[in-house]
Design brief:
The chain is of the alpha+beta class. The protein has a single domain, classed as Thiol Ester Dehydrase, Chain A. The chain contains 5 helices and 12 strands. It has helices at about 20-30, 50-60, 110-125, 130-140, 215-235, and strands at about 10, 15, 60-70, 80-85, 90, 100-110, 145, 150-160, 170-180, 185-195, 200-210, 215. The strands form 3 sheets. Strands 4-5-6-3-8-11-10-9 form an 8-stranded antiparallel beta sheet. Strands 1-2 form a two-stranded antiparallel sheet. A two-stranded antiparallel sheet has the order 7-12. A hairpin with a 5-residue loop joins strand 5 (about 90) and strand 6.
Length: about 240
């Protein structure tokens, strides 16, 4: 199980505080995410969306149908206020700027083992997004991200479960699509949720791309090589 007490602290007003080190460790150890924006020493550090996803589910429970939308980046040590209003959950920063909105419907549960297994499966799926899934899409569309300043941002995700009778849910990619509009793009990962081979749910993850340019194999190969080298160096 993921011990979320290791990855955030709470101030006297009950707001979450996530340090760059806590966010970076979660990204690398649990989500297999080596995006430079999650490096503890990056001045543009962003709290991983997968960490916020897990914290919300652990705090507010799991519903059969949920949608998570990220509208702003959360910086290190920025106080985050959680507001649970039933069908809608919001997370705002110290400037009252909405960081994340969650909508939910249907039956809900606070069963810790179920929530932890689903979160673990989801963040494991997220770790496959780059370069395994994203790179072939970019090559097919003949576009690439900026090698000097790659902009790949998590926009949100949604899912619907048919049941809570899950022991070891597995997320599996069903289809990945990309749409490009000038220098911007959006990638959608369509996934299914399975339990011992049986289909028990479906979902989508949305990624925004910025600064797109015509595809060049050598720079993109260099981006992938550097990313994989960072992963190997950390694991070593």
């Amino acid at each position: 199980m993921i011990d979320y007490a290791q990855f955030h602290r709470t101030d006297e007003q009950g707001r979450w505080l996530i340090s760059a080190e806590q966010g970076s460790v979660f990204a690398k150890q649990h989500a297999n995410d080596f995006n430079p924006l999650h490096d503890a020493d990056n001045r543009r550090f962003v709290v991983p969306g997968d960490l916020l996803f897990g914290l919300v589910l652990n705090q507010c429970g799991l519903s059969r149908s949920m949608a998570f939308t990220f509208s702003a980046a959360a910086a290190a040590d920025s106080p985050l206020q959680l507001a649970d209003n039933g069908d809608e959950i919001s997370l705002t920063d110290s400037r009252d700027k909405r960081v994340m909105t969650v909508t939910r419907s249907g039956p809900s549960t606070t069963e810790g083992a179920l929530i932890d297994s689903l979160v673990a499966s989801y963040v494991d799926f997220s770790g496959q997004n780059f370069p395994t899934i994203l790179m072939p899409l970019l090559e097919r569309e003949q576009v690439m991200i900026n090698p000097e300043r790659p902009l790949v941002m998590y926009e949100g995700m949604d899912f619907a479960l048919d049941t809570f009778d899950l022991q070891a849910p597995l997320l599996r990619l069903e289809e990945a699509t990309i749409s490009v509009d000038g220098r911007r793009g959006q990638v959608v990962f369509n996934f299914v949720i399975e339990e011992q081979g049986a289909l028990v749910g479906r979902g989508k993850k949305y990624i925004a791309l910025g600064g797109l340019r015509p595809y060049q194999a050598a720079p993109m190969d260099a981006i992938v090589a550097e990313y994989l080298a960072r992963r190997l160096a950390y694991q070593a």
